[in-house]
């Protein structure tokens, strides 16, 4: 069974994601307010791990880059579980296997990567040497439902936070894999058209509706430090009457 997936994000009042562009907090607010409110809210959801897109994880890890050709595509597509111990998991969706870690953790969390079946034996060996766990999302790495089912059954994850960026959130939205939205609204503005927002699904036509068939039901609203507002919504899939 797949875990419950909660999309946990902080955005400006105009829903944009790049925090270094936001107007400043009112005078007297703690300088690390964004990280603090984000992490404290995450803790309160009792998840066993979190998921990010390849680009967001690239900002957090600094392994030595080595490149492998695609000629030697691996024929083994078995899940590998490193020495996770009791740690929460930090999951990247990296179909092409672009990231190099050199470690088995980020912060105190154990690294897990979701791959396509096109990655090479050398890359898989590198991940095992680093102690990074891996699993597969089908031939092209787009089968997120299968990947989430593996995460639930083989990594014993009941609840996981989907933490961006907008591109990977959009892919999960289109695949109808989001059960709850946890949105922190930062009291500030970006204002520029085209800056990434919470969901950035790149559809095939202008009339595509990646969230079709779903309704949001408000679960709770809470005011946190510095005027950040935390809203939680359940994603309801019941057909409209
Ligand atoms: N405010 C917040 O709460 C928050 C949270 C997280 C991130 N961010 C910001 O968001 C930015 C990064 O976001 P992003 O949207 O550019 O990147 P992202 O969502 O972190 O990563 C996108 C990448 O994920 C990979 N991917 C895997 N499966 C995919 C699928 N089914 N569809 C599409 N892509 C898939 C692709 O990698 P390949 O290109 O290798 O195929 C794609 O380029 C950073 O600036 C970060 O600081 C903000």
Structural features, described:
There is one protein chain. Helix content is 19%, strand content 24%. It has two domains: 1-48 and 158-241, Dihydrofolate Reductase, subunit A; 53-146, no CATH class. The model has no long low-confidence stretch (mean pLDDT 94). The chain has helices at 33-43, 54-58, 121-130, 144-154, 166-174; strands at 4-11, 49-53, 89-93, 105-106, 109-115, 133-136, 159-162, 180-185, 215-223, 229-236. Strands 1, 2, 3, 4, 5, 6, 7, 8, 9 and 10 form a ten-stranded mixed β-sheet that branches. It is of the alpha/beta class and 241 residues long. The site of NADP nicotinamide-adenine-dinucleotide phosphate (NAP) has 25 residues, from strand 1, strand 2, helix 2 and helix 5.
């Amino acid at each position: 069974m797949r875990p419950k997936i909660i999309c946990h994000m902080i955005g400006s009042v105009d829903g944009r994601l790049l925090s270094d562009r936001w107007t400043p907090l009112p005078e007297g607010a703690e300088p690390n307010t964004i990280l603090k409110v984000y992490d404290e809210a995450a803790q309160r959801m009792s998840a066993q791990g979190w998921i990010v897109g390849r680009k967001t994880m690239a900002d957090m890890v600094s392994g030595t880059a080595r490149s492998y050709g695609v000629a030697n595509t691996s024929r083994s597509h078995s899940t590998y579980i490193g020495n996770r111990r009791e740690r929460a998991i930090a999951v990247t969706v990296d179909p092409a296997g672009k990231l190099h870690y050199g470690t088995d953790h980020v912060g105190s969390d154990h690294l897990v990567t979701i791959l396509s079946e096109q990655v090479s034996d050398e890359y898989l060996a590198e991940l095992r040497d680093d102690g990074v766990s891996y699993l597969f999302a089908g031939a092209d790495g787009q089968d997120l439902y299968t990947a989430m089912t593996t995460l639930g059954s083989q990594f014993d994850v009941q609840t996981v936070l989907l933490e961006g960026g907008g591109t990977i959130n959009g892919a999960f939205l289109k695949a109808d894999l989001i059960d709850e939205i946890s949105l922190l609204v930062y009291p500030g503005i970006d204002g520029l058209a085209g800056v990434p927002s919470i969901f950035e699904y790149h559809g095939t036509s202008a009339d595509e509706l990646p969230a079709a068939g779903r309704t949001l039901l408000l679960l709770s609203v809470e005011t946190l430090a510095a005027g950040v507002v935390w809203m939680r919504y359940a994603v309801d899939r019941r057909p409209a009457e």
